[in-house]
Design goal:
By secondary structure, this protein is mostly helical. It has 10 helices and no strands. Helix 1 packs antiparallel against helix 5 and helix 3 packs across helix 5. The longest helix is centred in the last third of the chain and has 26 residues. It is globular, with a radius of gyration of 17 Å.
């Protein structure tokens, strides 16, 4: 399924990455963390629309709460540089990721998770180089962050994610992203001095509850 591999690679490793990074540049780490927690919402909805997984009544209730919470977080601007544009870009990235997660499950039946992550990287690496080329000037001090993101947040994380999608399905895999806002908010508070507002906390609580 090489066409599927190329398409999924461009969707999850290029479009998602560009939207996510551009969104993060325009919003706060705390907002990003809470919005990432809406990943199960988009994954479950797409999985239902494509007939991959069915949802029961309680699941719909949870998704509704998560949607309301996501809307509150996305609309909460100001403070720590958060903007509506940045929040919407992060949400668009999550929808792209959710679509790729659902569509990748049949491909994972033919390719091991680590091999698929490697093939995705081979597909999109030239595209990343082209996008990054004009900005490869003064980045010497950022190499530790680049290494961390490339080796752990992208390399190992993609392989683990793919393996989980194959073993327990896309919706259940995405549910574990509910841990992201707790970690992101704690680190942003301690390292960046970000203080979440009341609307952001209320929306985040609804996302986690959902």
């Amino acid at each position: 399924p090489w066409r599927a591999i190329v398409g999924l690679g461009l969707l999850t490793s290029l479009l998602y990455q560009v939207l996510f990074i551009e969104g993060m540049a325009r919003t706060s780490a705390g907002h990003t963390g809470f919005l990432i927690a809406s990943g199960p919402l988009w994954t479950a909805l797409i999985a239902r629309l494509l007939g991959v997984e069915r949802l029961r009544g309680l699941a719909w209730l949870g998704l509704s709460l998560a949607f309301v919470g996501t809307s509150l977080v996305a609309s909460a601007r100001g403070g720590a540089g958060a903007t509506l544009t940045g929040n919407l870009l992060v949400l668009a990235a999550l929808v792209a990721w959710a679509l790729g997660t659902v569509l990748s499950r049949p491909v994972l039946a033919a390719f091991p998770a680590t091999r698929l992550a490697y093939l995705f990287t081979c597909v999109v690496l030239p595209c990343h180089w082209l996008l990054a080329w004009p900005h490869l000037g003064p980045i010497a001090g950022a190499w530790s962050a680049i290494a961390f993101s490339g080796l752990l947040s992208t390399g190992i994380a993609y392989a683990l994610w793919n393996q989980s999608v194959l073993r327990i399905g896309p919706a259940r895999t995405s549910a574990f992203t509910n841990l992201v806002p707790l970690v992101a908010l704690s680190i942003a508070w301690a390292a960046l001095g970000e203080r979440p507002g009341g609307l952001q906390l209320a929306g985040g609580a609804l996302v986690l509850l959902g």
